[in-house]
Amino acid sequence: MERVKINYSTEKVYENVQIANGVFKLTIKGKFAGKPGQFYMLKAWNREPLLGRPISIHHLDEEKIVFLYQLVREGTEILSKLKTGDEIELTGPLGNGFDIDKIQGKVALVAGGIGTAPMFYVAESLKSCQVDLYAGFRDEAYIIEKFTDCVKNVNVSTESGIVGHKGYVTELFKPELYDMVLCCGPEIMMEKVVKMCREKKVPIYVSMEKHMACGVGACLVCTCKTKNGNKRTCKDGPVFWGDDIVIEEDSI
Fold first, then answer.
1. 182 is in an annotated binding site
2. CATH 2.40.30.10 spans which residues of the chain?
3. Which residues in the chain land under pLDDT 50?
4. Is 197 annotated as a binding-site member?
5. CATH of domain 100-251
6. Which CATH architecture has domain 7-94?
7. Do residues 79 and 53 make contact, with C-beta atoms less than 8 angstroms apart?
8. 69 is in an annotated binding site
9. Which region is the signal sequence (predicted)?
10. Are 100 and 123 in contact (CB under 8 A)?
11. Range(s) for CATH 3.40.50.80 in the chain?
């Protein structure tokens, strides 16, 4: 797969706003590179945590790059407090994204929680496909309205039942209706989706979510099990063929 040159730069925040409970949208003006499914390491501090935080590309155009991130620990808490004009370090694009040129036909995007964020850039890029979105959230749904211009159908579930179907997104999803499936979200959800696709013999890409440290494959913190041995999520992924992922049967 073609590699995009990795750039290191210090930029100024254009906008950083909260769009849902614990979820923020960070916009930086300028020209940036990156394929759907790739990520950047973001850092806005000179103390611990030592390394940046991996954030997937939510949207990219000729004028700006946009990241959607969830408040989790100290690093993202610092990011959430950035204001317009504050400096931030960007390293990227990193990892292997979705091979858009090989994705054809009727496509399902299956996402859970903050895993919905990178799927917007994916949906924007699949212009020659018929795309449906399946998005699951614990309680509050967000950014769903943005997908209406680039997908045919939007299917939403919340565990609380506040929005859409009450339950899990996998209860709405029928893999046999699609030529290909792209998935990103909590590991247990993705394992379920992979298993469903295997049973129906539908090809699937998964974008793995693992804790990362360096972002370039040096530290081996983010390894995941595949049929070809352990792979580095940040370097060999985060996007993998679903058939390559090892699933523990008792985890589903």
1. no
2. 7-94
3. 1-2, 214, 250-252
4. no
5. 3.40.50.80
6. Beta Barrel (2.40)
7. yes
8. yes
9. none
10. no
11. 100-251
